[in-house]
Amino acid sequence: NSTALTTKQARKPYSLSASLYHIIIMARYYSIPSNLTTIKFCLLFPLLVGMVSAQLSSDFYATSCPNALSTIKSAVESAVSSEARMGASLLRLHFHDCFGCDASVLLDDTTTGQGEKNATPNASLRGFEVIDTIKSKLENLCPGVVSCADILAVVARDSLSAPIWSWPVDLGRRDSITASSAAVNSNIPSPTLDLSGLINAFSYKGFTAKEMVALSGSHTIGQATCGNFRTRIYNETNIDSSYATSLKSNCPSTGGDSNLAPLDVTSPTSFDTAYYTNLINKKGLLHSDQQLFSGGSTDSIVTNYSNNVGALITDFANAMVKMGRLSPLTGTSGQIRKNCRKAN
């Protein structure tokens, strides 16, 4: 029933993620026992992802809208040139849309329900106007062809201006018709999670701990609000004391919740390995950042990425491709929105 799969909310009953829901449905179809173990689940996941990705292709718009990708790239370059911070904001939009990759994060609230934009994990998202501009250009170029979900996926890649940070983007996603704030609250990892919580959150989406650490490298650009790191700088001990002191001047113990600090204090506008070096030096801004280097199983991964930019480039790109394949709507499911902020 494709109708049942047209909304992120419908695809996540009982707070299950879209990925889990599809896997459970497939498991039932193939008569896999209901007491499927975690190991069997992890073995099944790559097969199902492969089945989904087979419906996507990097040249999806080669005939229907051949100038789509160049139009997106030009608009992104213009936006980032006007405001360096916008690159991180656009990358983050894709992260928060996936896990689900259906552009539900772009939908405005309606009279019948709250969308995802105002859910707590998404409250600081920005860059929606850039997406609006791109969508308008594409609608003038190829009406009703390029989905908002695909725009987000391509924008995430193009937001990193350095050509070494690139990956092939599979295309052919369609857009959901509604959004679910409850789904966001249950699916976006919290910045307060400890290492085991982070590993579990990403594992449920089919990611390994190594892939989780690689994706966390996106924090080498962008900023976070004081409200998300206040507890860390005032109450935690695994933080460089001078670093904590420098942050307190703009993040008082009370008030100033929306004040900003760079996630990467060393090179805040460059996508590089400094984020990982900062973790080794106890200069992770968020609690969840520092957990990646806290005496646990991911310490060696952080150390490797700190010293080996080539490994990070490869692993980050592969993880981004994998993330872009998480439960997209394809075929006749969903729709191609004319306006990314509302269903047709």
Explain what you see:
The chain is an all-alpha fold and 344 residues long. It has 2 domains: 1-190 and 326-344, Peroxidase, domain 1; 206-322, Peroxidase, domain 2. Helix content is 46%, strand content 2%. The protein has helices spanning 18-29, 38-53, 68-82, 86-97, 128-141, 148-158, 181-187, 195-203, 209-216, 226-235, 241-248, 274-280, 287-290, 299-307, 309-324; strands spanning 223-225, 260-262. Strands 1-2 form a two-stranded antiparallel sheet.
Second-tier CATH architecture of the largest domain: Orthogonal Bundle
Cα-atom Rg, whole angstroms? 20 Å
Mean pLDDT: 86
At the third CATH level, what is the topology name of the largest domain? Peroxidase, domain 1
The poorly predicted ranges are: 1-51
In summary, what is this structure?
By secondary structure, this protein is mostly helical. 46% of the residues lie in helices and 2% in strands. Ca(2+) 1 binds at residues 97, 100, 102, 104, 116.
